[in-house]
């Protein structure tokens, strides 16, 4: 099940990347690259940081084709996509949660300590979007928005807690997935957000 | 021959990096760092992604000296460089093509699958310029411009196709190099470009 | 002693990261992430480039807690921090110098050649600040400012020169640390800076 969700998720992330590239008037190639990077960048950063070589997507060429195609397709269907905005937010939320669980699993298998496992989950969940925003020259949205990255943190913590108490792996995954998805959707619906830190000094220099 | 072209190319890339740093009023150190990163960043990203340690430039200190010197020299000669604009575009095109071929070769030697080999070629070809633009806080030019990154893709595909059909390696290299260079120069001359994706939604949020 | 200085330094760097995040109106999560990245990003980039896996902070969870806590604490105390500006600049200078020495040591232990050791020191010293500025969507300050990154270069060179001439390791460390700190503080006090390269062409395109 997680694999199906994963494939849907990287497609949705690739399309969100393509839209961001379109806002910067990139050409077809730029669109394809940003799509690829948004979808697979989080896992890539995780693999590199954990020393988990070869990097996952290098062993799964279909992931490359899927994300690049989704990006290019977006150029054609973009004008109709505002009608699908709600669907998209749901797919993106599924992606965030699925990526986080997958990231935790990778770090667990490599025997990293729990805090690192949590970090690996978060990095997998949010770094695709961060790389997209860096390449599109804007402040990463996932660090400003309504509850987004923190959903990733909560999913990771819940997942590891359930595993720790010996709960069956499938049940754990389903629970973490459902709670995370519900939370993200609730955050969108009721505009939940974390306290924002606004700092505007007059003459301070860091 | 590829080595000579490579040395010329990293020098040209370092100088283009230095000019970009100058547009951001960086100091001498910043100029040197951006020059280094523009010239050797593509290969570094490739090596890290492919798990190809030690990273190439760490085994070739002269590459460090060459790129840093080229960057600093640029501070002195910048005022005369607009006369050499045409020469520069040619050197940059040579670099793009040479980097791509070298990147493909590195991935081939590590036994990666063909799609990954193509990606390795492209990453080596264009990521130096992308890192330069990220550090200079602008949207990566190579993803917007006339046919640039796509030349890298075509060179990689041509190179691998010829190798696949058993064409002699030197001939393959020369053919890929010439075709790629010709294509990039033609793209500059006649302003060839890929379709651009301009997306300006009014109320859409990704 | 270096460990104590290191802990003080990553705390100071985390707080500087948090302030930068606050200037971009990030939420609590963004503040924590930027704090973590500013403090530990330089060492992470160094470890990845040198192939030094596992990356240092993955083996020291307390570093994660310390930097994240320091970042969150900053949200509370930020309004009083302008009074501590001078203290902060000193802590930041200590961090720059300590990070550089630590970076050189890591590369020395991995038997890299001297130019790479110097680069490893500089990367450890300045890349946390560079990553902070990239994520906060501004041109890296350490490449523009008064003598900053170049202090890192000088510390690395001094450290390696003294080691080369067989000076006792503790003495070497103390000397490099003191000279580096003095130099950075002098640079702040008397606004020393490197020549700046300002390049503003009218019609040139790189």
Automatic annotation (TrEMBL), chains A, B, C:
All copies of domain Glycine transporter, residue ranges: 5-78, 90-162
Tell me how this protein sits in the membrane: Multi-pass membrane protein
Q: What is this protein called?
A: Trimeric intracellular cation channel family protein
Entry's Pfam families?
A: Gly_transporter
Question: Does the keyword field hold ATP-binding?
Answer: no
Compartment list? Cell membrane
Keyword annotations for this protein, in alphabetical order, are: Cell membrane, Membrane, Transmembrane, Transmembrane helix
- Source organism per entry reads Thalassolituus pacificus
Q: Report the superkingdom from the record.
A: Bacteria
Q: Which family does it belong to?
A: Belongs to the UPF0126 family.
Task: Please provide, in alphabetical order, the Gene Ontology terms of the cellular component aspect for this entry.
Answer: plasma membrane
Q: Where are the transmembrane segments?
A: 63-80, 87-108, 114-135, 147-165, 171-188
